[in-house]
Specification:
Two copies of one chain form a homodimer. By secondary structure, the first copy, chain A, is of the alpha/beta class. Chain A has eight helices and 14 strands. Chain A has two domains: about 180 residues, Rossmann fold (3-Layer(aba) Sandwich); about 130 residues, 2-Layer Sandwich (Hypothetical Protein Tm841, Chain: A,domain 3), CATH 3.30.1180.20. Chain A has a six-stranded mixed sheet, with helices on both faces. In chain A, helix 4 packs antiparallel against helix 5.
């Protein structure tokens, strides 16, 4: 294992310390509770929006804390759910009296821990709504989930819902919009290589020199099938078809498209995939009206990519376009 | 070789096609000349700012075309200089009557071709100034250069100078600022792994499972020394000390610091390096007043990082803070 780290048990703590100084204008890090909190939180009268999950998926979620997106993020150990105490601390840190939304990726550990945190927060008088994302069309149940896994759409939910929360909308409306984005979004990913969890010290799985895994999870958990290497055009087709089909996208519709890198894939290849995606959708008379290309929900240094499509309407486009200012996503300000 | 590509000879062309559709609001791509041009170019009375070099370093340079940074970029084949005809086409495309600045990384091929392009442009009545970046303290002469290599500071030159050009400043002043940033900036990089040029099909070099290369170039060319793996803190010290020493940074000074990923290193590790850098500089009473952490000048999927420091004064801070809107760098708008 070759990594730019010190002790494997210090990786998350030291990365958080680095984030805290690099983005001191936007966030503060509560090192004791291991949470990243928006600088001016809590904001009176605003719904607090938080998310969390295992580390190793950076910039998600900590890189999305700031104006117009998350109020706090709870990073667990690498590929490990954060604990309810962290989630409770984050909930309290962003509670401005209008309730708090928990955005939870569908993994059993995350779901259980966020449920417990919500109960603890309720006991302290904080109203919590939870929305579970489950956009991965690759598998029904999986190694770590009952039902579909929550993957790329989570990034887009956080952006869109964060913009609505910024307007002072009530908790029920913010939660409803989160559910809507999740329902209108689907993803599928693939890997060319495995990744190595620092504490494990060896690759999570092995792939042959001529193999790839289609439908991979973001923790290296198995996908739909392991197949021989193929071209970018073929790979894009393998990912896009199930997404388009499951979402029931029809000719004439518009989408928000994310081509996401898994962490170890160069940007030049992500643009090759985006070109292929654009051709496929153009052939179906589906228009990419908004897009995002880059590393947003990663699996450490895994090489590969995922594609997320969200059916776009005026409401979603409006909140997507709204200003955002976080370490990893910024526009309009 | 496992990559998300179709034919190796089509990688650059297809990535440019992907960029063109993903960022149609900001750039247009002239596929015949293989250049990326700012949407509203040429801008009358504004100095045009262009750069270029081999592909495989994305987002540099194409990802930096837009408001407040570059007016055009000329990507060559992977790790190969663009040709004078591309540079001439880019120069003409951005010439608004106030002259054009060529920002050239110090590699023999790039320097020669940009010189020829400048002569051709002059023959067509376009005034051109050229600034060569040479910030890499790792080696004096190298495989591809006489003198130091131009690396990370190039990104910072492009941002700062692009902001000045946006104000309508004359060519001589824009070129002088580019020279100043280069003179006040130094970099050093390292690699944990090699990378594979698509057309070559095999890794550029080999590194053992317990080895790393300190002072690596952005094309995998050799660095200062090959050493045994070390901790993030030790690696950061190996990169920072030569930079601080060569720049003659003194207690009480301020810097702009970039911790840059080589393409295959996860963001969580870059923040660990940033934390270590911050500690080292803090110990020398040098303040990081501005920072950038992420993949900005890469070597395909190489794992590793580089550190660039620029001595900061009020003038450089002002142009660094100015609005920018490009595919890869955006703030203030």
């Amino acid at each position: 294992m070759k990594k730019l780290i010190n002790k494997s048990e210090d990786v998350v703590k030291e990365a958080l310390a680095g984030m805290a100084v690099a983005h001191a204008d936007l966030i503060s890090v509560d090192m004791e509770n291991q949470i990243i909190v928006r600088k001016n939180a809590p904001i009176k009268g605003k719904v607090g929006v938080i998310s969390g999950g295992g580390s190793g998926h950076e910039p998600m979620h900590g890189g999305f804390v700031g104006f117009g997106m998350l109020d706090a993020a709870c990073p667990g150990a690498v590929f490990t759910s954060p604990v309810p105490d962290q989630m409770l601390a984050a909930t309290k840190a962003v509670s401005g009296g209008a309730g708090v939304l928990h955005i939870v990726k569908n993994y059993t550990g995350d779901v259980l821990n966020f449920e417990m945190a919500a109960e603890l927060a309720a006991a302290e008088g904080i109203e919590v709504a939870s929305v579970v994302t489950n956009d991965d069309v690759a598998v029904q149940d999986s190694l770590y989930t009952a039902g579909r896994r929550g993957v790329g759409v989570t990034v887009l939910v956080e952006k869109i819902v964060g913009a609505l929360a910024e307007t002072g909308a009530p908790l029920a409306q913010v939660a409803a919009l989160a559910r809507k984005v999740n329902e209108q979004g689907r993803s599928m990913g693939m890997a060319l290589t495995s990744c190595t969890v620092p504490a494990a010290g060896k690759p999570t799985f092995e792939l042959g020199e001529d193999e790839m895994e289609i439908g991979i999870g973001i923790h290296g958990e198995p996908g739909r099938r392991r197949v021989k290497m193929a071209s970018a055009a073929e790979i894009t087709e393998m990912l896009t078809s199930p997404v388009v089909e499951d979402l029931g996208l029809k000719s004439g519709e518009q989408v928000l498209a994310m081509v996401n890198g898994m962490g170890g894939t160069p940007l030049i290849e992500l643009y090759v995939i985006y070109d292929a995606l654009n051709r496929i959708l153009h052939g179906k008379n589906i228009t990419i009206a908004r897009s995002l290309v880059g590393n947003y929900i990663t699996s450490l240094e895994m090489a590969g990519c995922s594609i997320t499509l969200v059916r776009l309407d005026d409401e979603l486009a409006k909140y997507w376009d709204a200003p955002v200012h976080t370490p990893a996503l910024r526009w309009g300000m």
